């Protein structure tokens, strides 16, 4: 029996789909199948437009009606005559105004997508005029949401030429809007930042036309004066400037930026201070995101052909990223780690070692384990594990440098903390964590000191209450040292120590490394206590 598609059956199916969204019930599958078939029906044009005319329906149902019309516009617009397309546009605009006036944010977003697709696919041209004249009488977010979604849909539909041709009209409209005195400043600035960020991020605006535009000037002003606005507006301003910074490498690759403009943007961003007071958390995070993007955009640029004045930006990037690491929470620090990696990989050389020491000191503090044990699988555990993974990679990237005064001083401080009478367990554990990546270089330059360290360390801190985290770091350090020890007697001493640490810890995440050390050591030790080694190896295997 054929299913009858009427307004009532469509509404019922849409409600079922919304109510059972996310589950795997037969009811949800049936409703989803119904909607997929419904969207392909020619009658879904009129039925969906009819639903949008009945705005008393639940918002979720109206959203599905808007999604259906968007699907029809993208795939079957040629089914509609010119008159029908105009009627469709008028219906969508009316619904858009209603959604805006009734704070139906989700519906407004989907209607914006449908309207943007219709404007781009219809071939009417004069996009900006069509948007502004249709919604300019509304002091609502409707027009701004549509302008924000236009570049996204243009890229999705590969209909970019119209926006490229009319980008100057957008900037002119934003200038006019900000000059108005009859609208709320915060609302206008926030909307302007969001619209600009959308158009910039998809490369519909150029740096030349942006740098002196009032929206960008206002964004810099807000970031330079965090106390002049609310935290959310700082975030919008930051998003806009982040998009601007992402445009710099794109412009460089397309040779559409001059060195002086590039330098001007860099210096303007560097002049922004990081708010660090407790009540300025939103502004601090907004500025931190800007710092991170500044480093990512500029450190990766090929400066070979740039004037001397534009070289040497790495020290400034070091300083800005260090501010983030020093003052921000771990989540923000994690988001900065790709920029740190980029900085270390591309720019790090002996000339930057003056900045290396302070950075290592900051990360030493941030990687310290709390006194209370972190529970495996918790968010705090995962965050610390991820941060330490990044820091380990960074340490390995600097460990190839010749041991200079900066690294020597840092390593000496680590050793001092390990043997300090007043060192807490977390200082000892973290010092061992930071020493491990330098093992290859230390064996080249300070071999005897390292061997003495490993010999003396257990006797210095061994007792029944040795912290498991310290024991684990000693196992890691021991297994690293084995790669560079050839003497059978030294190797046996290290193996014996390693297995003692393993039994003290009961079980280690590095058990496979421990077994690997025993396997390799057996061939070198030959007849030196082989039965004892095999017995310990078998016991570790049974414990895996």
Describe the structure.
- With 544 residues, the protein is mostly helical.
- 73% of the residues lie in helices and 0% in strands.
- The chain contains 27 helices and no strands.
- It has helices spanning 7-19, 26-39, 44-53, 59-76, 82-101, 105-122, 127-135, 142-157, 161-179, 185-201, 207-210, 214-224, 231-253, 259-270, 281-299, 314-327, 330-347, 353-366, 379-398, 405-419, 425-435, 439-445, 447-461, 468-481, 488-505, 511-525, 530-543.
- α1 crosses α2 (26-39) and α21 runs parallel beside α24 (468-481).
- The longest helix is centred in the middle third of the chain and has 23 residues, at 231-253.
- The mean pLDDT is 80.
Characterize the largest beta sheet: strand count, sense, and whether it forms a barrel: none
Tell me, what's the shape? Answer: elongated
Tell how many strands the DSSP assignment holds.
0
Task: Give the low-confidence spans.
Answer: none
The helix tally amounts to 27
N-to-C terminal Cα separation, in Å? 61 Å
Q: Structural class, from helix and strand content?
A: mainly alpha
Radius of gyration: 31 Å
Tell me the fraction of residues in β-strands, as a range. Answer: under 5%
SSE series: HHHHHHHHHHHHHHHHHHHHHHHHHHH
Mean pLDDT: 80
Indicate the percent of residues in helices.
over 70%
What order do the helices and strands come in, and which of them pair?
Layout: H1 7-19, H2 26-39, H3 44-53, H4 59-76, H5 82-101, H6 105-122, H7 127-135, H8 142-157, H9 161-179, H10 185-201, H11 207-210, H12 214-224, H13 231-253, H14 259-270, H15 281-299, H16 314-327, H17 330-347, H18 353-366, H19 379-398, H20 405-419, H21 425-435, H22 439-445, H23 447-461, H24 468-481, H25 488-505, H26 511-525, H27 530-543
């Amino acid at each position: 029996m054929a299913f009858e598609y009427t307004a009532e059956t469509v509404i019922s199916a849409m409600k079922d789909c919304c109510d059972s969204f996310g589950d795997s019930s037969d009811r949800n599958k049936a409703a989803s199948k119904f909607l997929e078939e419904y969207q392909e029906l020619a009658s879904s044009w009129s039925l969906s437009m009819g639903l949008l005319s009945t705005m008393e329906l639940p918002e979720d149902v109206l959203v599905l009606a808007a999604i259906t019309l968007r699907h029809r516009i993208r795939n079957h617009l040629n089914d509609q005559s010119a008159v029908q397309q105009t009627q469709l546009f008028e219906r969508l605009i009316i619904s858009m105004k209603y959604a805006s006036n009734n704070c139906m944010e989700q519906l407004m977003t989907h209607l914006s997508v449908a309207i943007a697709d219709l404007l781009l696919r219809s071939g009417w041209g004069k996009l900006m005029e069509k948007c502004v004249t249709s919604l300019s009488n509304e002091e609502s977010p409707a027009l701004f949401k549509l302008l924000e979604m236009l570049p996204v849909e243009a890229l999705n539909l590969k209909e970019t030429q119209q926006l490229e041709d009319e980008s100057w009209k957008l900037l002119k409209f934003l200038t006019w809007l900000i000059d108005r005195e009859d609208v709320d400043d915060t609302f206008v600035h926030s909307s302007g930042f969001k619209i600009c960020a959308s158009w910039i991020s998809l490369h519909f605006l150029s740096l030349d036309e942006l740098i002196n535009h009032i929206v960008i000037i206002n964004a810099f002003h807000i970031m330079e004066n965090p106390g002049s606005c609310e935290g959310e507006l700082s975030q919008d301003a930051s998003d806009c400037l982040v998009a601007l910074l992402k445009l710099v490498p794109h412009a460089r690759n397309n040779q559409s930026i001059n060195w002086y403009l590039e330098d001007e943007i860099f210096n303007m961003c560097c002049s922004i201070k990081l708010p660090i007071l407790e009540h300025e958390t939103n502004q601090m995070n907004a500025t931190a995101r800007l710092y991170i993007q500044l480093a990512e955009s500029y450190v990766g640029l090929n400066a070979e052909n740039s004037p001397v004045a534009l070289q040497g930006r790495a020290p400034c990037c070091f300083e800005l990223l260090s501010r983030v690491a020093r003052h921000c929470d771990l989540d923000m620090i994690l988001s900065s780690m790709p920029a740190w990696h980029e900085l270390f990989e591309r720019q790090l050389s002996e000339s930057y070692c003056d900045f290396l020491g302070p950075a290592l000191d900051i990360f030493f503090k941030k990687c310290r384990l709390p006194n209370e044990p972190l529970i495996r699988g918790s968010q705090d555990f995962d965050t610390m594990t991820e941060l330490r993974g990044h820091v380990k990679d960074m340490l390995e990237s600097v460990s190839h440098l010749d041991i200079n005064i900066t690294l020597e001083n840092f390593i000496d401080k680590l050793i001092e903390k390990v043997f300090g009478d007043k060192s807490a367990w977390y200082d000892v554990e973290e010092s061992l964590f930071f020493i491990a990546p330098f093992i290859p270089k230390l064996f080249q330059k300070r071999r005897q000191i390292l061997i003495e360290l490993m010999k003396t360390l257990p006797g210095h801190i061994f007792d029944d209450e040795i912290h498991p985290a310290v024991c684990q770091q000693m196992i890691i350090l021991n297994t690293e040292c084995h790669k560079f020890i050839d003497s059978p007697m030294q190797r046996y001493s290290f193996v014996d120590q390693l297995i003692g640490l393993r039994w003290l810890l009961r079980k280690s995440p590095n058990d496979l490394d421990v077994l690997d050390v025993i396997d390799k050591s057996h061939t070198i030790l030959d007849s030196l206590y082989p039965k004892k080694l095999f017995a310990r190896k078998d016991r570790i295997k049974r414990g895996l």
